[in-house]
# Entry
Amino acid sequence: MPQMAPMSWLVLFLFFTLMFFIFNIINFFSINNKKNFNFYKKMNKQLNNNLLFLKWMW
# Structure
């Protein structure tokens, strides 16, 4: 049925946006482990004088 073709693009778009948001939520809750926290702390200490880095991070 050719008249149903745009619906497939809508379904694909909704699927990928949903997967993007779900991945973001999972990352937000799983970034709280110690390894990542120490990594970001070290990165901040190493580049705390870099205004461009702080502008990018916040």
In short: The mean pLDDT is 72.
